[in-house]
Design goal:
Rossmann fold, three-stranded antiparallel beta sheet, 10 strands, 297 residues, 35% helix, three-stranded parallel beta sheet, alpha/beta
Amino acid sequence: MMQAPEPRFRFAPSPNGRLHLGHAYSTLLNARIARTLGGQLLLRIEDIDLGRARPEFVAGILADLDWLGLRFDGPVRRQSEHFADYAAARDALAARDLIYPCFCSRGQIAAEVAARQARGAPVSRDPDGAPLYPGTCRALSADARRARIGQGEPHSWRLDMPAALRTLADPLLIRRFSPDDGAEETVSADPARWGDAVIVRRDVPTSYHLSVVCDDAVQGITHVVRGQDLEAATDLHALLQRLLHCPMPAYHHHGLIRAEDGEKLAKSKDSESLADLRARGVTAEDVRARLGFSRLC
């Protein structure tokens, strides 16, 4: 009988700001579950956004995690060092005509959606509330696509959702696991609700969705523990895993740490950072106790 792989978890922050209590909760929970299941915890720096990622934020992340008393297994994986891997995945999808170049700007897409609404046509939205891409560039001929790319026209790459769904020979399922004992169940995935999602951005040869699927496979991640705000994205990740022949981790999406006004903590909202708390004299023990992790993970 084949032995099950050692459980592997990962904490994967983006270095576009300092960590806050929400990040602390997520990484402490990952550490607790990894310890409970006798697994490893890896650290990944998701720095594909070269315009916002900064070395001082990477240093800050490492300092904050060390302050919390967390230790990680294996080397730190930095996404910005693996663009070639993501480009290879993009090329594999393109070779099967499962993605297509999109030359539409955000303004053009917004104008087309507004025109549809003015005509009284229904506008479907993805789980994040954004209007689904209307499929404008999906109808372009292969010659037109090549010509526009050859002319250097900026473009992203979108998943051809209808084509991708046609490749599925059996239902697409997502593995969920209990953080208490690791017991699993499966639920149905519905990637169609994301429409023709952007799989490769204009500025870099990847996207969050593509790189996280590739990285989880390369790092041998067996369990993904992340916030509920990313739960719906798992449908899209499950589809990409199937298309790229990647193993599927088991998922647990935890509740979010929220501010006093009920809003989730976010770097973009200047939520108080761990560094701010430390400067006010708050200790790592205080933070762990506040988040329900009195014992060091």
